[in-house]
């Protein structure tokens, strides 16, 4: 009897480890002429804005996904230093390309004018304002910036205006808050007053229920659609438009096709939804199998998407808790292809040897680089970009 039970347990554990990708044989490829830029930990999200790279950074040692702890998460957040928003202009990126810069400086941190309180950023999004949208602000800024903020005791989205990409100052408008904001991960703006966001954790990180939520792949999370006043961050109205999600993560609005792409990390999928203008609701259009726990999404100029992924999910979990090494993978997705088309999802890059673990985002620059950021690593991994994404 004991032997039979033991065999069943071993089989279940083996199946779960296989599902997490722990038995994969990985082959390094795609990293060409690697450079590292260090100085800020946890550059988790990046977006290229008119040649300037915009990003969020924070030491996320407080986010203990695989290690329940007796210290409450809000206490851990309080004890951690604040994060920052970064601006890497074309001159900086060119210097990185030529090997003249290997360290960030304090000048790369943006000034958050009018903002007070704690700042623990995660996902970010820069929305280019239309002329009519910009006219609602006194200084007619070029961009509206949204940044998820996991500050102690309150999870919200900070809203800023950005005059243009030459400015190192963001002007704080206010904080978007709502009871459905449990633990937000990523955000995308459709317009100055409408956004979609992923709630990736239901339970509090660093607790046993959160560990079970991840290991059991519980479908308890969701995608939100919210409207708000873009000049005050008030009048917030949010609703769940996709539920029963297994850790929804990266999200992107595909403007040309009026679609929303969402990563579901624990389901190993990227789903493209048709968006309905009348009420903001979403309906499934295509579901792509990634065979990997993917993270953020970055749109290319032709509508394809890049995603930083974690091919060995449990290994990534231990990396998050103990800062052990974990593979870095970048996938290239073509949302226009059928889901069963072998060319729809391709592995662009994989490394276990570039001294950079668990990339969460990959962005090609106008200078021919592919810049990778990570949840926990120090700085960026920079490689020559493959020609098929430029």
UniProtKB/TrEMBL annotation:
InterPro entries xrefs: 6-blade_b-propeller_TolB-like, Serum_paraoxonase/arylesterase
Originating organism: Salpingoeca rosetta (strain ATCC 50818 / BSB-021)
Domain of life per record: Eukaryota
Transmembrane segments: none
Protein name (record): Arylesterase
């Amino acid at each position: 009897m004991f032997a039979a039970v033991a065999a069943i347990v071993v089989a279940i554990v083996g199946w779960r480890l296989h599902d997490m990708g722990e038995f994969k044989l990985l082959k390094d490829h795609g990293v060409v002429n690697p450079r590292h830029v260090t100085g800020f930990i946890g550059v988790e999200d990046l977006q290229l804005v008119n040649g300037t790279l915009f990003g969020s950074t924070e030491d996320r040692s407080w986010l203990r996904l695989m290690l329940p702890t007796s210290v409450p998460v809000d206490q851990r957040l309080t004890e951690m230093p604040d994060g920052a928003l970064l601006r890497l202009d074309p001159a900086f990126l060119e210097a990185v390309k030529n090997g003249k810069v290997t360290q960030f400086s304090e000048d790369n941190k943006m000034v958050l004018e009018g903002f007070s309180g704690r700042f623990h950023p995660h996902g970010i999004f820069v929305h280019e304002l239309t002329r009519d949208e910009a006219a609602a602000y006194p200084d007619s800024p070029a961009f509206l910036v949204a940044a998820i903020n996991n500050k102690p005791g309150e999870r919200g989205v900070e809203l800023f205006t950005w005059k243009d990409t030459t400015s190192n100052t963001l002007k704080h408008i206010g904080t978007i808050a709502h009871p459905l904001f449990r633990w937000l991960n990523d955000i995308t703006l459709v317009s100055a007053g409408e956004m979609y966001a992923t709630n990736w954790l239901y339970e509090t990180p660093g607790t046993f229920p959160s560990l079970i939520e991840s290991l059991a792949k519980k479908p308890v999370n969701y995608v939100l659609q919210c409207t708000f006043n873009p000049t005050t961050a008030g009048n917030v109205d949010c609703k769940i438009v996709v539920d029963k999600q297994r850790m929804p993560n990266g999200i992107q609005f595909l403007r040309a096709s009026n679609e929303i792409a969402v990563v579901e990390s624990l389901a190993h999928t990227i789903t493209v939804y048709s968006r309905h203008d009348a009420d903001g609701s979403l309906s499934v259009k295509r579901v792509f199998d990634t065979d990997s726990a993917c993270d953020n999404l970055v749109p290319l100029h032709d509508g394809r998407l890049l995603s930083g992924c974690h091919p060995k999910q449990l290994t990534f979990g231990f990396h998050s808790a103990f800062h052990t090494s974990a593979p870095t993978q970048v996938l290239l997705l073509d949302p226009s292809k059928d889901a069963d088309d072998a060319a729809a999802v391709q592995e662009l890059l994989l490394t276990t040897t570039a001294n950079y673990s668990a990339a969460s985002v990959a962005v090609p620059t106008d200078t021919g680089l592919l810049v990778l950021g990570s949840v926990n690593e120090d700085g960026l991994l920079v490689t020559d970009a493959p020609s098929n994404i430029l």
